[in-house]
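Methods: example folding runs. The two proteins below were folded one after another, and each record is reproduced exactly as written to the output file, sequence line first and structure-token line second.
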Amino acid sequence: MKTNFTQVKTDIKFYAKNGSITAECVAVTFAVPSGANPVTVNGYPIPAGGSLAIELSAGQIDMSRYEFFFGTGGSGNELYIIRIIPAMDLNND
């Protein structure tokens, strides 16, 4: 039986200013630590301590542009963006 695996790389980046990214990945998570200012991603509000996770089906790549903006009310701007990026295909028999 042949099983196909896709090798992936996990990319974690920290942001403290308004900005945007192009996903270019199979999954992306926007995480706001507890106590931080809330963040809006493409109009979707993420409160302190919350997150937004987007996962695609096998064989799909998210090419969306995500804009993020910080609100007020917390201790400061903190956003972690975690992307799962395909690296290459591996075939196992």
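Second run, written to the same file directly after the first:
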Amino acid sequence: MTSAKIKEILQEKNGKVKLYALCKKHFDLVDQWEERLTAGDLLNEYELAQCMERLTGCMMKFGPISGALESQKEFILQNQLVVEQAKFEDKFRTQDNDIAKARARKTAEELGDIATDFRHYFYASQSAVVMAQSRLKRLSVEKSAKGVDFTGEVPNV
């Protein structure tokens, strides 16, 4: 999803709710894999490969959205800062700058919270993919050492 599409969604009425709704399937998928991994289910290599594929897809969804939300938040923050600083006109003091920054941050706060949700789900997906890769490699090495049901690459020696 592009930044322009996300900006368009956010400008709609209930745009933030719509953005979450568009990604609900991906949030649920990350939560489902989190439950399986937390429960300590012994996953075989096919389930681990499925985990890697699906959560990589989630990362591909959450990453661009998180980046676009961060960009939009920064844009709103900077614009609102200019507006707040303009309110002080000629009598602008150092402490007025702090007040203007605080008001501007308050304006972009909700968008920052949404961006944080997407960013943390991205990180959760990333951690699970790395874990699945590590576990898959370990299973492959163990099978190779035992010479049983080995599905990895075999050296041509």
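Comment on the second run: The helical segments are 3-11, 15-22, 24-39, 45-86, 94-146.
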